[in-house]
Amino acid sequence: xxxxxxxxxxxxxxxAAGQDTAAENYLKTIYAHxxxxxxxxxxxxxxxxxGVAPSSVTEMVKKLAAAxxxxxxxxxxxxxxxxxRMRAIGVVRRHRLIxxxxxxxxxxxxxxxxxxxEVLEHSISERLLDAIDARLxxxxxxPHGDPIPSADGSVPQFPAVLLAEAPAGHEGEVVxxxxxxxxxxxxxxxxxxxxxxxxxxxxxGPEAVVLVAAPGAEAVDISAPDAIWLTA
Length: 232
Known about the structure:
- This protein is 38% helix and 15% strand.
- By secondary structure, the protein is an alpha+beta fold.
- It folds into two domains: 1-157, Arc Repressor Mutant, subunit A (Orthogonal Bundle), CATH 1.10.10; 160-231, Ferrous iron transport protein A (FeoA) (SH3 type barrels), CATH 2.30.30.90.
- The strands form two sheets. It has a six-stranded antiparallel β-sheet with strand order 3-8-4-5-6-7, with no helix packed on it. A two-stranded antiparallel sheet has the order 1-2.
- Helix 2 crosses helix 3 (54-66) and helix 4 packs across helix 5.
- The longest helix is centred in the middle third of the chain and has 24 residues, at 82-105.
- It is globular.
- The two termini are 18 Å apart.
């Protein structure tokens, strides 16, 4: 899908040192919340995801709204404007390309790259980013299966069903695994499960889903079925 182009460059949000980095983190988190499900993010959930006080979210939301990057009504959900979405996509592109580069070229494991990318995404130049993108062969997904936006802002689409909502008997490849829990990534890697792994849903439940990797592998208990997506 190609997001609508902004009519003008978004206004910078810099009221103090590091404020622009903070703004980018807010925009990226708002964007990522609705990437795999439709419900917009609330200020309280945003505060929890970022690990900040609700008062800090309130202050930043006002700045982002004044800059034309989000729309918001008091106590209501937060929505990116076209300009805010384009800026968020730019940060997401940098983050996911850096993660992919660290895994493929620098010997990092997929559970180790998130924090490194969080730092580098705010400082890397567009020239270096494009060079990394070209060297990696213009990848469409990062190591966790998240889509990597292209330089023009278009985002690859991967129709998928959440493992927790997949019916027993559903077969498909793992499309994406949330990188929020490094211990889950390590556990899945030890069991040979990652993006592209062909699996069959054997049992479903509120807390665990059993996957049977095809062909002939043992059943695997999954304690976080809300963190894995399969081809629909």
